[in-house]
Amino acid sequence: MPFARRITRLKESGTLKILDIVKALQAKGASIIQLDVGEPDFRTPDNVSEAAKAALDSGFTHYTPSAGLPELRDAVAEKLRLENRLDCESANVIITPGSKQALFYAVMVTVDEGDEVIVPTPAWPSYMEMVTVAGGTVREVPCSAGFGLDLEALKEAVSERTKLIILNSPNNPTGCVYSDQELRAVTEIACEHRIQVISDEIYERILYEGSYRSLGTYPGMADLAITINGFSKTYAMTGWRVGYAAGPRELISAMNKLQQHSASCPPSFAQKGALEALKPETPVAPMVAEFRRRRDYLCAELSKMRAFRVAPPKGAFYLFPDISETGMPSSRLVELLLEKAGVSTTPGEPFGGFTSNLRISYANSMANLEDAVNRVRGVLEPMGLA
Ligand SMILES: Cc1ncc(COP(=O)(O)O)c(C=O)c1O
Q: Do 262 and 379 fall into the same domain?
């Protein structure tokens, strides 16, 4: 029986496909160092786990209000007001099962069949597929040199049908943090054409240089920005599935209708953990310091090899080196490193057709990174690429 068109036009996740191959190799006994997954290797901070355990022990195991626990919505609104300077109250916030779900609702609520969505690339592949499910068309706008925004190309990509722009800074996969000038220019385009902008700020706290400014704070953006964030990356809470969106009340209510009829609500005890995570005593800084150490190490080591051209990115926990010197498309190099070195990375193709880059996640221990560098060098050296 044929499936619905919205499913047949959907691509499989390129990143999860690599994970399947890795698992199959591991099942055969292969030792693989995983530099493909985008999740912190740290334990969730103890204070967070304790709060969730206490919730479980007290029987806090039932549905919560659909848009999330009122105290968590309040705490998120307060965080957004104090840290991000967004004009935000509880009614402007919805808690979702992961920020991915928040993004999905935001796209479903804004994009109609035939609408266009501008996505600067390289970009996290799920954006493209969410737009496809909604029946929209993605207008990809490749970055300028150094992974910055190509502002002229962005302006040219706007049409009568443009409904949405999706921005992600710090960026997955490049680690690039857009400058004030770049963000301002995007908001000017959005205001002129009345286009909604999703600002995916999930890597906001994993920042090594400069400061961070939320897109919703730019003039005219209060009713156009949809801010997305969550607990997965900042607090090493990927499996807890708690994220959130903030935006105009009507939009948040519309998103909540989708949540009511799909997830019902995010997990109750996980929300209690998230509430605890927002407290200032949760140790985020040591994790960021460790990410920085790894970034510096990996950039320095890869730069010594002829195969890679890479500069230290300002945020997130990925490198997206240029691999043109290898003469191989990214997917081929990924296969080679996986099969011969036992190191898994992610090809650049799913991020918007970047055949000359591959994504390396350094959310792995220093010892594993050192081992991975030695393994990769061992494979590339005989090829004259190290
Ligand atoms: C750019 C970006 N946005 C959103 C997410 C989703 O995170 P979660 O659903 O775990 O909150 C990810 C996860 O990899 C991501 O890289």
A: no
